[in-house]
Amino acid sequence: MAANRPEVIRDKSDMRAWSRSEKYRGKTLALVPTMGFLHQGHLSLIREAKSISDVIVVSIYVNPGQFAPSEDLATYPSDFHGDLRKLAEAGGVDAVFCPKNLYESGIERKKMDKDPSFGEEKAVSCLEKEEGGDGHETWIRVERLEKGLCGKSRPVFFRGVATIVAKLFNIVEPDIAVFGKKDYQQWRIICRMVRDIDFAVKIIGSEIVREADGLAMSSRNVHLSPEEREKALSINRSLTKAKSAALHGQNSSQEINDLIVQEICDAGGRIDYVEIVEQESLVPVENINCPVVICVAVWFGNVRLIDNIEIKM
Ligand code: PAF
Q1: CA 234 to chain centre
Q2: Which of 84, 19, 100, 85 is closest to 55 using CA atoms?
Q3: Among 39, 42, 81, 248, the one annotated catalytic
Q4: Is 212 domain-assigned?
Q5: The whole model's pTM is what?
């Protein structure tokens, strides 16, 4: 296995120098950004990257900037040595970028705050800077796309994601970056950010990878009890039925929505949202007569799961 062991790089200048030397040698470089605790879903992103690029960098960094103080940063699962073992076994990864910290230090804030300039509740992450201090304070916001779907209940999430992905692009300087379409809104937001601020990075959206019983793979699945996991199968079941209904002519979003809500609630899930939106703009539709994606976020016990299904009309 040692031959397949990727090089582990912790320092951002070393990472940039490594990438530049590969690119100087004429190699194309793909980045697969992750927060670790790797599963088959991540390995499939890596395979996709490998099929279109010479050199693969996987980043492993649990980004405090995308967690609100009330969210699960402290309990986010991690297994760095396990991750390295999986990458060595899978092969094909040349370097793992695992920085200790990518933000200039500020102090933690534990509460939501008000920011008069936005006239709304200000998004505060786990690393917000001290007022008047010199910690990190630059954020990328994809203003409209970040607001709907998961953005409604996770106000800091997408500015944290966009910011860390931009930082990773600046450090790793990839030609290609691969993201999973399970995080559909995240993928669309990254595409929009890349277009809007002219990153020279090609973004690939990779199809959702599911367990044999249909549950979308997620690092959070380990937190489900066996009963919750069984109940969570209602998510994919309801999405599959909804797609079939839509393809058979049921085009009222409301009725498709009701069908999904009913199935998930019957199984004991607590709905955060079910929305049927246009695939690129993520604008909700009343009738399904263009390419849409049905996005859901559901709680089973203390675990919030997201999933989606695309319908190409
Ligand atoms: O999808 C994830 O794991 C994260 O949001 C990402 C893209 C690695 C940014 O931290």
Answers
A1: 22
A2: 19
A3: 42
A4: no
A5: 0.92
User: Could you identify the residue written with the tokens 């246009």?
Assistant: 278
Q: How far apart are CA 203 and CA 188, in angstroms?
A: 10
Ligand 1 pocket check for 58: Cβ under 6 Å: no
> Is 213 within a domain?
no
Q: Is the CB of 190 under 6 A from ligand 1?
A: no
Residue 64 identity: P
Indicate if ligand 1 lies below 6 Å from the C-beta of 164. yes
Q: How many domains does the chain have?
A: 2
Which CATH number is 104's domain given? 3.40.50.620
CB-based contacts of 43, cutoff 8 Å, min separation 6: 86, 90
Range of the domain at 247: 219-311
- At 107 the pLDDT is 53
pLDDT digits (tens, 9 = 90+) for 90-133: 999 999 999 999 999 865 444 334 444 433 456 688 887 555 57
φ and ψ of 4, to 5 deg: -90, 0
The answer to whether residue 267 is domain-embedded is yes
